[in-house]
Amino acid sequence: MTRNRGIRMVHHSYDYVLVLMSYVVSVLGSFTALRLMAGIQDIHDTTRRWKRLILASLVVGVGAIWAMHFIGMLALNMPVKVDYAPGLTALSAVVAVIACLIGLSLTSRGDHSRLNLLTAGTYMGIGVAAMHYMGMAAMRMPATTVYNGAITSLSILIAIVASVAALWMAYKRSSVLQSMFGALVMGLAVCGMHYVGMAAARFAVLGTPEVAEAHGIDSLYLGMLVFGVIVVMLLGVLIAGLRNREVFAIDS
């Protein structure tokens, strides 16, 4: 920690095993979502289309975005006790899913013009950014979070650009190999938004209380647990899709 005008600034670092896990889960979630959306243009039944949209929104919102965010948060190492408010953390996941559903539904109508992609991507990106900063607000620790306005704005811009790109890739007919490449790019974009957002944050301890030396939770084990649960869920969707070639448009 350093002292700055009576405020002790808390230095932090990252557990790079968890950072890598956050990227891997984002890539797997992105790939699963891209394959789910690959053949949706050929679905004319409204009920089936909405079921696919909701499933894809859950996959990308929870798997590719929220899980990446939460594991990334757990990767943060600070010399203070950190816990997370469960209600606000869960609500942030709901916000991510709703944001993805809005973006996917707006572009699923067949209008893939630049204006519509930008509009849908803006809604989705703002929702993703809201999820991130709600997750940050869920942190419970003996410190105050102070944000750099310019870097925060940059993180929101990255979220919007990433969302526009994700929606463009979601409705672009692509092969499995192209979806793999797209997922790698989307994973980088999602992680980029998260870690730029984290770079905008500074943590300050006010007053003179002693700073705890241990975390309130075992970050590594909790991160591995979240990673394992989400990966199993995503692999379940992938396996179910592979059994039904229509689901993932395997021939496209």
From TrEMBL:
Pfam short name (any one): MHYT
Keywords in alphabetical order: Membrane, Transmembrane, Transmembrane helix
InterPro entries in the record: MHYT_dom (IPR005330)
Location of the MHYT domain: 14-204
Transmembrane regions: 16-34, 54-76, 88-108, 115-134, 146-168, 180-200, 220-242
Gene Ontology cellular-component terms listed: membrane
PANTHER family: DOMAIN SIGNALLING PROTEIN, PUTATIVE (AFU_ORTHOLOGUE AFUA_5G11310)-RELATED (PTHR35152:SF1)
Protein name: MHYT domain-containing protein
Organismal lineage: Bacteria, Pseudomonadati, Pseudomonadota, Gammaproteobacteria, Lysobacterales
